[in-house]
């Protein structure tokens, strides 16, 4: 990527290696992604179950089972109430992320994960026993609060615990957990849809309690990150924790950098105000063709078994590509690029922006599909092109750079460097002729 690859070579190399303790700790923490993944996978399957639709969304069920051949295939699921059930989670996650930011900064990463798992557990119970749309959506909102807390705290926790050389690999455990959650949810939906009596949807929704319990219990036993311990003023405990996760007593250099970052963070009274300052600005698909050919613009038509399998293959290819690129990096990069003093606020913005646009897409997707038809797939393909161009020119490489030295990357970048003052780079001086730190 442009602008940052050479900086990694100039990053400090601390003592210590990859310990079993830190790997296990990060794997346990990454389980927080299970709740998000399970919900993503389960909601889509449940909303297509006949008994679920009959009970909560009868008008959608009527359109879905229309056999006259006159019902537009693009518009069968176009219901604002149905999309509200799906998208309400993302609104709740958006709002919750800002509260989670304060809890993460003041009380630590562990309590935030614990609260997220606990609230998600309550939401899954309400969804499983719901008899009306109101309780169903309240449960959904609580799930959103849990997701907001988890997505706020887990990526930050992983970035702070992991050694620089494997930070990306360990942080991607969060996306791996999301993907596993989606897979498990789809397998659950496949099984519960076959349950006679029409109550399989309750099992699907209630089983969200399993990843919630895993996250809640896991958070109890996880250690706090050295960065978080320092934020609350306990230097000796923070140093001992750093020694434990690095597997060596010789952590003086890294600890000193963490200490300097912590002291700088304490000078910031209002991270939400400071994050607007110039120095933090750098941190701030084939399916459409086939569907268009078969359904045109009137939405009338069918897919043969072979054609349906080909569409499924293309969708799976898209999901796979997303899972090894935008999926994990959308959580990894924001969690590691912010200085300690604004890290919680920065992650909250990341989560809230993610949830906001997910809400917009979830709330408007069925209506857009109804109006744009197969063109909707090309609409999103255009955004992929824009995102790719942005990454190529404006996102620097952060591989092997210690998390507290990330400002070196931004200072050396051809565009963002002008926003980063020299004093923001820990122990660094800038060669004005080359721009290198």
UniProtKB/TrEMBL annotation:
Any one GO CC term of the record: membrane
Residue stretches making up the Major facilitator superfamily (MFS) profile domain: 25-437
CDD domains registered for this protein in UniProt: MFS_STP
Domain of life, source organism: Eukaryota
Record-linked Pfam families: Sugar_tr (PF00083)
Main location as per UniProt: membrane
Localization terms from the record: Membrane
Membrane-protein topology: Multi-pass membrane protein
UniProt-recorded Gene Ontology molecular function terms: monosaccharide transmembrane transporter activity; symporter activity
InterPro entries for the chain: MFS_dom, MFS_STP/MST-like_plant, MFS_sugar_transport-like, MFS_trans_sf, STP/PLT_plant, Sugar/inositol_transpt, Sugar_transporter_CS
Keyword Membrane: yes
Keywords, in A-Z order: Membrane, Sugar transport, Symport, Transmembrane, Transmembrane helix, Transport
Segments crossing the lipid bilayer: 18-38, 81-100, 112-130, 170-188, 200-222, 284-304, 310-333, 345-368, 374-395
Family designation: Belongs to the major facilitator superfamily. Sugar transporter (TC 2.A.1.1) family.
This protein's name: Major facilitator superfamily (MFS) profile domain-containing protein
Biological classification of the source: Eukaryota, Viridiplantae, Streptophyta, Embryophyta, Tracheophyta
